[in-house]
Design a protein that fits this description.
single chain, 281 residues, alpha+beta, 434 Repressor (Amino-terminal Domain), Beta-Lactamase, 2 domains, 5-stranded antiparallel β-sheet, 5 strands, elongated
Length: 281
């Protein structure tokens, strides 16, 4: 087996997607389930459907260091019924074409001009997060809605940690489980792009030990390249807030994103957010 953690992650990804499918999903209606001991499809079924040899596919799923052509990846993506984000994830793990992003320590601080721009968004919460989902900058309204970030330290400024570990934070969100799954899928993509960074292993291990829900969702292996799932929340001060999300990559920032939240213009979210903004100011 290869020592490359990306290859090992590829094996876990392929196995999770193989186990997700049933013979009926793959059009193998003749394959009976009564004697099947394997969860999902068997390796030999995936290999046959993709038109590759069983030893070759087995080596790939075991994380061995073998070359993979685009045509083979196309076949696997088709057979495993991958969506757009999962397909992108497969290609990156199997044949990365760029270097991993730099760590946050090598990334310059947020420019004063960018902070100034966020501060002008008086009626839209906005923050900047890094490739680990740590907040590195925010405006006053974002702190009033999602914070208070100025009083948070360490992991409490990590959006994934807050989602699973802070009861007062998670209780605000309607459909918390869907939002948490979406954020976790985005985090999985970030982890794969920076898989050699030991921070991720430590963080994932600590959060898995602290939150059974996180551990279960992490094992399910969801992948989302960028989460734009809306935030629908019952804020303790403002009441119901329906916020759509817009993500913008910060130029030359190695994985940082500016997230701006836009209130719904038809259900009173704009007015309720404006009242909260007045207090934040």
């Amino acid at each position: 087996m290869s020592d490359d953690p990306r290859r090992q992650e590829l094996g876990r990804f392929l196995r999770s997607r193989r186990e997700r499918l049933t013979p009926q999903d793959a059009g193998l209606n003749h394959a009976g389930n009564s004697r099947r001991r394997t969860k999902g499809l068997r390796r030999e079924e995936i290999a046959a459907l993709a038109g590759i040899s069983l030893p070759w596919y087995t080596s790939l799923e075991q994380g061995r260091d073998i070359n993979v052509s685009d045509s083979v990846l196309d076949s696997l993506a088709r057979v495993l019924q991958l969506n757009k984000d999962e397909r992108k994830h497969l290609y990156f793990l199997a044949a990365p074409r760029r270097k991993s992003a730099k760590t946050s320590a090598e990334t310059p601080t947020v420019p004063v001009s960018l902070q100034f721009m966020m501060d002008q968004l008086s009626h839209c919460p906005a923050y900047i997060s890094d490739e680990k989902m740590n907040l590195v900058a925010w405006n006053a309204l974002a702190s009033a809605v999602f914070g208070p970030f100025e009083r948070a330290e360490g992991k409490e400024r990590n959006m994934l940690w807050r989602m699973f570990m802070l009861p007062s934070y998670r209780s605000m969100f309607i459909s918390w489980d869907t939002l948490a799954g979406s954020l976790l899928g985005e985090f999985r993509a970030m982890y794969s792009r920076n898989i050699s960074d030991q921070w991720y292993q430590s963080f994932i291990g600590e959060l898995s030990a602290s939150s059974p829900e996180f551990a279960s969702l992490w094992e399910s292996y969801e992948v989302v390249c960028t989460s734009q799932y809306p935030r629908v929340m019952k804020h303790p001060e403002a009441g119901l807030l329906n916020l759509s999300t817009w993500l913008f990559p910060v130029q030359e920032s190695n994985g940082r994103y500016l997230t701006i939240f836009i209130p719904d213009q038809s259900d009173g979210s704009v007015e309720r957010l404006a009242t909260l903004a007045a207090g934040a100011t």
